[in-house]
Amino acid sequence: MNEHIEQQIIRLSGAKSAVNSHLLQSLWSDYGEIRRYTLEGGKYSSVIVKHIRLPDKVDHPRGWNTTLSHQRKVRSYQVETSWYQQYAQRCDQYSRVPECYGSEQNENTCLIFLEDLDINGFPRRLEHVTHEQMDACLEWLAFFHTRFLGSEPKDLWPVGTYWHLATRPDELEALDDKLLALAAPKIDTILNNCKFQTFVHGDAKLANFCFSADGLSAAAVDFQYVGGGCGIKDIAYFIGSCLDESECEQHADRLLDKYFDHLKQAFLKYSIPIDVGEVEAEWRPLYSYAWADFHRFVKGWSPDHWKIHAFSERITQNVIAELNLE
Hints:
- The protein is 44% helix and 16% strand.
- The chain is built from 9 helices and 9 strands.
- It has helices at 3-13, 67-86, 131-147, 169-174, 178-192, 232-242, 245-269, 276-301, 310-322, and strands at 17-26, 32-40, 46-53, 100-105, 109-114, 198-200, 209-211, 218-220, 227-229.
- The strands form 3 sheets. The chain has a 5-stranded antiparallel sheet with strand order 1-2-3-5-4. The chain has a two-stranded antiparallel ribbon with strand order 6-9.
- A hairpin with a 5-residue loop joins strand 2 and strand 3.
- Helix 5 (178-192) packs antiparallel against helix 8, helix 6 (232-242) packs antiparallel against helix 7 and helix 6 (232-242) packs across helix 8.
- The longest helix has 26 residues, at 276-301.
- The chain is globular, with a radius of gyration of 20 Å.
């Protein structure tokens, strides 16, 4: 067990000792790890530590070993630290996130000490979801977007999501679909210039949600790509991360409707002085643009990815047709 980390845990938690640790996950491209530490004699029985270590040699699993890729990851961990320090406390039971007990950074490492959601009502991680469990995530996203509507993303990504066009020139260069490459800046501009801006989670895939025992409530983790933007980007990405081609055909429209139902509930709950109908009228047509935006990234990043299918192609071609590029 790392002695410095153990001492920091004891200081932050008031525990007498950290008795053991368990590896939960290695970070992408060998940038560190996430561990659960079991504690004795303090307020908490366990704590989660996200330990970022900048590697001497970058080993990206899909070969994107570039300086830009490294800089993007470094920035993402700075953003995540800022998120927990400045914004996470604004979330509530409707957009549950782990409490941050503290953090520290130096030139090559970063430590983030977090609440263990497993012992506080969210013990389940799911690889496959029911419609009810997807609904729990859509509710989380709706309340999250409402909570940060109109907020300035200071010290976060100015434009959230890990596939944002300005941060992905290499993938755009590798994109064989030249018409989509031509459309990409226009799609990006339309999404970025929408009137109703909020914070987007930026990586709202199933793996970043933790579920209650009954699967009907969700909490979210991993805020490396949180930032400003149109909330509908999270929704297109989330639905696409859960459903295959045939499931998208059957259920995507209904799930989009469910999101806007939750958004209306959130506006009422927080007494937002904006007509939610105006937000829906702007965001709903942008759903296909958000889908095409991610499709652009994944086609350049990994042309054989399972998310590239006829449903996504059709949505993207419809967007291109709307832009009158042909």
